[in-house]
Design brief:
- The strands form 3 sheets. Strands 1, 2, 3, 4, 5 and 6 form a 6-stranded mixed sheet that branches. The chain has a 3-stranded antiparallel sheet with strand order 8-7-10. Strands 9-12-11 form a 3-stranded antiparallel sheet.
- The protein contains 12 helices and 12 strands.
- Helix 2 runs parallel beside helix 3 and helix 9 crosses helix 10.
Length: 339
């Protein structure tokens, strides 16, 4: 839809590549609403960046001449926003400036570029701000099309009929919502402590709720090997129990292996029910699409959080949140009381 506009968060170092940022603003003028990383010197920079990433449709990262101001945790806001974007599994367009051999850049920026290059294959390289628009034309189209985005805003003039109908259907006794700066909701938001923000749940999960995943396996029958692809039903409680048993920190690969172990026993029963002559089942693996979606939901539900905050660490590490641990304890306690 030509009049649909998306929310794009721009990840960048403070006071760097200002002409490139201006080029982004011009390119996205009719395509998107932009938010930007703010200076690490501001106490709420991390909270603001995380909230923008939570709500955006996708992100664009500009890696230029600066790593950015380093925070007390040893990384810049650009680096922190990059990790948050990866943790939320948000679509990400990365524009990296070409640095000539004689160009002097900081060690931190060098290591950050190595990290980004190793983890992301789809990078766009530019020399000057004049290169930005040609790079973004195809990149923006691919980001919207490949990720099947259905969000974004539509111009108010095109939605006026729907809005009018909604207003006319409301009862006259309904109290208006206070959106003024003095409203209680806004006052509360302004006083959210950054340390507590990590406990916010954007996509809650119900432990008793079930869902289906796709997996592949190898079944052995009479000396023959058969590749099998089937679906399996799991519950979020089963997933949380798996997470509780994980090491204090674990990688995405470790999470995938733990889920594979969970489904192996169940898969063997299901496969032997359909193929009674099968004597062994091995190599049970959840589909890549489902493990990606599962990880995204675990992050959105605040069950796991990212622990990697160093350019020297090439692999993302996760940990189970305090919120998730309490969730299982409360559920077990309530179940025992009912019994």
């Amino acid at each position: 839809m030509p009049n649909r506009r998306y929310h794009i968060h721009v990840i960048c170092a403070d006071n760097d590549q200002l002409l490139v940022l201006d080029s982004l603003a011009i390119f996205f003028q009719t395509r998107a609403f932009l938010t930007y990383d703010v200076s690490s010197r501001l106490s709420k920079a991390s909270l603001y960046g995380r909230q923008c990433i939570d709500s955006c449709d996708y992100a664009v990262m500009i890696v230029g001449d600066s790593y950015g101001t380093v925070q007390k945790n040893g990384v810049s806001q650009m680096h922190l926003s990059y990790l948050n974007t990866k943790a939320k599994l948000k679509p990400l367009i990365i524009l990296v400036k070409n640095h000539h051999q004689e160009t002097v850049i900081s060690r931190q920026l060098q290591e950050f570029i190595k990290l980004v290059t190793k983890q992301d294959n789809l990078l766009q390289y530019y020399d000057t701000e004049e290169d930005i628009e040609p790079l973004l034309i195809q990149a923006h189209y691919n980001a919207v099309a490949n990720n099947k985005m259905t969000g974004g805003w539509v111009r108010a003039s095109e939605d006026v009929t729907i809005t009018s109908n909604n207003i006319s259907n409301k009862t006259t006794n309904e109290k208006p919502i206070d959106v003024s700066p003095s409203s209680n909701n806004i006052k509360e938001d302004r006083h959210i402590d950054e340390d507590l923000a990590s406990d916010e749940v954007s996509e809650p999960l119900v432990l008793t709720e079930i869902f289906d995943i796709q997996y592949s396996a190898q079944a052995y029958e009479g000396g023959n090997l058969t590749d099998v692809t089937r679906s399996l039903t799991l519950s979020w409680q089963q997933i949380l129990i798996v997470l509780i048993k994980m090491p204090s920190t674990f990688s995405s690969y470790g999470l995938q292996n733990a889920i594979n172990r969970l489904i192996t026993a169940k898969a063997e029963i299901e496969i032997k029910r359909v193929m009674p002559n099968v004597h062994a089942v091995s190599r049970c693996q959840i589909s890549q699409a489902d493990i990606n979606d599962l990880q995204r939901q675990l992050v959105g539900a605040n069950w796991i959080q990212l622990m990697t905050y160093s350019t020297r660490v090439s692999q993302e590490l996760w940990k189970l949140t305090f919120y998730a641990k309490n969730l299982l304890q409360e559920h077990t306690s309530n179940t025992n009381k009912q019994d």
